[in-house]
């Protein structure tokens, strides 16, 4: 290798500094060259953040087309869901701390209004439509406006909440549910404050 002359070395350093510090002017680079130490600047490219796409679930129409919530006819038997009812009773006992005889009724009522009712046995006690009165069975599905109930005769009944009063009994405690004031999804009821006083019409 042949040693480079001072002029060639200066030209090389000048070119190198211009590439390394493109935002500096020539005067500023010459000023830097007069110093003993040179700090090279590094310009990092800003990374563009990609927006995360939220995964969308199925629409109501898609769920209907896929029949996600439909119970097959061979599964519509009361005996199949009796174990579910036993699990529900244990769930309510745990929720209400044992349902002791000295338990305050309004406390139990408040717990039941917010509880999950899948597996509960209910009876339609009052209705503006007489054909609904007396229907008794296990709640298999709860939607915003209806209950799907399986009766002892292995018949799946779709009972609207509107204009119906349901009774629910567990360990001797009977609770009444006014369906007209109960038109919520199961997931929404846990956060709702219910009024336990006052007159309620069908």
TrEMBL record:
GO cellular component terms, semicolon-separated: nucleolus; ribonuclease MRP complex; ribonuclease P complex
Endpoints of the signal sequence: none
Database matches in SUPFAM superfamilies: Rof/RNase P subunit-like (SSF101744)
Domain of life: Eukaryota
UniProt subcellular location: Nucleus, Nucleolus
GO molecular function, a single term: ribonuclease P RNA binding
Biological processes, Gene Ontology terms: rRNA processing; tRNA 5'-leader removal
Keywords: Nucleus, Phosphoprotein, tRNA processing
Cross-referenced SMART domains: POP4
Complexes and interactors: Component of nuclear RNase P and RNase MRP ribonucleoproteins. RNase P consists of a catalytic RNA moiety and 10 different protein chains; POP1, POP4, POP5, POP7, RPP14, RPP21, RPP25, RPP30, RPP38 and RPP40. Within the RNase P complex, POP1, POP7 and RPP25 form the 'finger' subcomplex, POP5, RPP14, RPP40 and homodimeric RPP30 form the 'palm' subcomplex, and RPP21, POP4 and RPP38 form the 'wrist' subcomplex. All subunits of the RNase P complex interact with the catalytic RNA. Several subunits of RNase P are also part of the RNase MRP complex.
The protein's role, per its UniProt record: Component of ribonuclease P, a ribonucleoprotein complex that generates mature tRNA molecules by cleaving their 5'-ends.
Family (UniProt): Belongs to the eukaryotic/archaeal RNase P protein component 1 family.
Name of the protein in its database record: Ribonuclease P protein subunit p29
Species this protein is from: Baryphthengus martii (Rufous motmot)
Lineage: Eukaryota, Metazoa, Chordata, Craniata, Vertebrata
Gene designation per UniProt: Pop4
